[in-house]
Amino acid sequence: MTKVALLTLGCAKNQVDSELMLGLISNNNDFKLVQEAAEADVVIVNTCGFIQDAKEESIETILELAQLKNKGRLKGIIVTGCLTQRYKDIILEEIPEVDVILGTGTFGDINEAIKTVLAGNRSSAVGTPAYDYRTNLPRILSDSHFAYVKIAEGCSNHCSYCIIPKIRGPFYSRSIEDIKKEVDWLTEQGVKEIILIAQDLTRYGEDIYGKRSLPELIKTILKNEDIQWLRLLYSYPETLPLEILDLMIEDERICRYLDIPIQHSSNKIRKLMNRRSSREELLDLIQRIRERVPDVVLRTSLIVGFPGEEEDDFSDLLDFIKEIKFDRLGVFKYSREEGTAAAELEPQVPGEITEERYHRLMEIQQEIAYSNNQKYIGNILEVIIDELNDEYAIGRTRYDAPEVDNIVYIPEPGNLNKGDIVSCKIIEAYEYDLIGETINEKSETESGK
């Protein structure tokens, strides 16, 4: 029996693709899935190719596997994902240890790719970027208590810094009916937290229904009473339907959490980025969100060192961050990516200046994050348990997405299990971590009378 391992790099959308590949492989009785590459006959690498750091990580992973192959412990390497879709046959040409490459639209042919490797052949099967996501596809979940659901793929925004439209193709949505079936299947498996994802979640439905239909999708999904948390990733400010805020208030299962990637505040830089809304419109939107849902947690992502970013533009961004005080924030150093409009812009910001601005911004955000987290001390929050060891449990609140946001440490986990949702009293708070203790809700309520 052929042993197969799969390594996933990059974002949650890649994780979904990997889970589908694992499902397909598990359906073949001639293949056995293993966790470690060192134990495998064939290893699959699902790559990321979004920015330079991601490309380097993907290439380094492939080269490490090539060493295993050269030592005779590994029979074949299959590479798929964004890197192969972007660079097609270059990987086969430059890394002879790679046997087969698949693209973002052809990873469903993974079993045939494994057979090609075992036959001693090399091939490239990178086609169009779109993949037909359907509920009836087999899938092996990475986690038993939360799962990502792709409601759309691709992107049609054409931000000047971003290569995703060329890698993943134009924006296209799945039907409400098919998504609902997938969510129902996931909750039947015991999944408690459903995370809807797309490159631009808020444009959902405009291509197949002629209008943006995210509110209708959410209402349909929530007919499933087994959903305990519903999280939305990612909400572009230009297309955010404010009806979502009303739904958050009406149904507490919708996490009061919005990831709104703005990238920059300077109107000059936003125009160069081909982002449509202005600084003033962003401020107005955020004010309206917080007025309607006062306890909402806002996350954003920013880019520093974009071509043409002068000190005044960066100062504008710092002032914006100080005014808004985002609860969660990620910062990327601009990566000059071939094939993007921004790669041709001048002047490009020197790397040392980009690095310095990155650290200045992160220092300010660290102070904001610490201050924001102090409000949780003494509060009782629901926490979903993601990990356990002998010393403590690690979880997240409703206000935190997996892997990118705050985590809650619970000492002396006792009888807690992975996937439990428990009430915790927060006793300490730091920049990115909270310390909590589980409580008996009834006795806590009575003691407060």
Q: Keywords for this structure?
A:
449 residues, Rossmann fold, Transcription Regulator spoIIAA, 6-stranded parallel β-sheet, 19 strands, 34% helix, globular, disordered C terminus
Summarize the structure.
This protein has helices at 12-26, 52-70, 82-87, 90-94, 110-118, 164-168, 176-188, 214-221, 243-250, 267-272, 279-292, 311-324, 351-373, 441-447; strands spanning 2-8, 31-33, 42-47, 76-81, 100-102, 123-125, 146-150, 152-153, 172-173, 193-197, 229-233, 257-259, 297-304, 328-333, 380-388, 392-397, 407-411, 421-429, 433-438.
Descriptive overview:
With 449 residues, the protein is of the alpha/beta class. The chain folds into 4 domains: 2-125, 3-Layer(aba) Sandwich (Rossmann fold); 141-255, 2-Layer Sandwich (Transcription Regulator spoIIAA); 264-375, Transcription Regulator spoIIAA, CATH 3.30.750; 377-447, Nucleic acid-binding proteins (OB fold (Dihydrolipoamide Acetyltransferase, E2P)), CATH 2.40.50. 34% of the residues lie in helices and 22% in strands. The protein is built from 14 helices and 19 strands. The strands form 5 sheets. It has a 6-stranded parallel beta sheet, with helices on both faces. Strands 15-16-17-19-18 form a 5-stranded mixed barrel. α7 packs parallel to α8 (214-221) and α12 runs parallel beside α13. The longest helix is centred in the last third of the chain and has 23 residues, at 351-373. The model is unreliable at 441-449 (pLDDT under 50).
